Amino acid sequence: MVPFEPILARALERHGQADVTAHLPAVKNAAELAAVPDDRYLSLLCLRVFRAGIKHSVVDQKWPAFEAAFHGFEPHAVAAMTEEDLEALMSDSGLIRHWGKLKSVPPNGAALRTISDEAGGFGRWLASWPADRTLELWDALAKRFKMLGGDSAPRFLRMAGRDSFIFSPSVEAALKLWGVSDGGRGKAARAQAAAQFTEWARTTGRPLAHLSMILAYSVPE
C-alpha cells in the first residue's frame, strides 16, 4: 500500500493549506444522510442526470422550473407521471427539453421510492454501504436508476454529501503517478484503487471524498 503523507505534502506544496481545505467536499454522517427527505435525493439525482453533458450553470438556472414541473420531486407523484405528462413538458421552454432525460425521471422516482420503502428511507440506504463497498454502491445505483452510469453515480453521491471518491482525470493521473494503479478505468484498476482508498481512510481517518480531492491536488492541473 502507498503511504498518504507524501501525497498530502505534495498537494499542500502545490496549493497551500487554505486552498486545499476550502475545496474539501462536505461529507454527511449516517444520521445526517437519513434526515434528508426522499424528495431532495430525487431532485439531486435528476439534477445529476440533466447536468451530464450540459453546462451545469444552465441546468442549475432552470432547476426551479423542474421542481415545479415534477411536483417538488415527491417520489410517488413523480412515479405516477405518464408519457403524456412528459410530452406536455417538451413544449415548456423553461425546461431542458431532452426527451431521454425527461423520460428517465418517473422510473427513477419509482426506483427511489422502492429503495426507500425497503430501507426505511433512501438516506438510510445510502448510509448502509460501508467504505469498502463503494464500487458496489456505484454499481447498484447504475443498475437501479436510469442514466446514472459512468461517473454520474459517484458525482451524485458527492452532491448528496455521501462519502465517495471520484475517478476524475486528475485522480486517475495521480493514481498512476503515485504507483497505486495504472490509472486506467478497467475493473481491476478500479478495484485496486478502491482498496487503496479504503486503506487510506483507515490509516488517516479522513473521508474518502477528502482523500480523493487531496489526491487530485497532488498533480499538475
* Highest CATH level, the class of the largest domain: Mainly Alpha
CATH fold assignment of the largest domain: Endonuclease III, domain 1
Strand content: under 5%
Helices and strands, in order, run as HHHHHHHHHHHHHH
In quaternary terms, these chains amount to single chain
Envelope shape: elongated
**Alpha-carbon distance between the two ends:** 25 Å
Q: Note the main sheet.
A: none
Domain tally: 2
Radius of gyration (Å): 19 Å
Note down, in words, how this protein is organized.
- The protein has helices at 5-15, 17-22, 30-35, 38-51, 56-69, 75-79, 83-89, 99-119, 122-127, 134-144, 152-160, 169-177, 187-204, 208-217.
- It is mainly alpha-helical.
- It folds into 2 domains: 5-27 and 165-217, no CATH class; 37-129, Endonuclease III, domain 1 (Orthogonal Bundle), CATH 1.10.340.30.
- Helix 4 runs antiparallel to helix 8 (99-119) and helix 4 crosses helix 11.
- The longest helix is centred in the middle third of the chain and has 21 residues, at 99-119.
- It is elongated.
- It starts with a helix and ends with a helix.
Question: What is shown here, in short?
Answer:
The protein has 221 residues and is mostly helical. The chain has helices at residues 5-15, 17-22, 30-35, 38-51, 56-69, 75-79, 83-89, 99-119, 122-127, 134-144, 152-160, 169-177, 187-204, 208-217.
How would the blueprint of this fold be written?
Blueprint: H1 5-15, H2 17-22, H3 30-35, H4 38-51, H5 56-69, H6 75-79, H7 83-89, H8 99-119, H9 122-127, H10 134-144, H11 152-160, H12 169-177, H13 187-204, H14 208-217
